[in-house]
Amino acid sequence: MSRFGDFGDICANVPSYTWCNLFYRQLSENSNLSSILSGVSSDATSAPVGVNPECGIPRVGSNGSVGNIANIVVCALSMIVVVGLIILTERRKAAVGRVELRNLLAVYFITLPFQLITNGSLLKQGSTLLVVLTAIHAALVATLFWALLANAIISTQVVEDGSMASLAPFYIFCFLIFGGTLYIALDVALGITQTLGPSSNPRELQSVPLFVMTSLWPIIATIIYFVVMLYVILGMLKELRPTLYYILAGVVFIFSQLVWFLLGKVICDSSRSKVDGSFLTTILETTAVGFLFLGWRAITEGSWDNTYY
Question: Membrane-crossing residues (predicted)?
Answer without folding.
Answer: 69-89, 101-117, 129-149, 170-196, 216-237, 244-267, 279-299
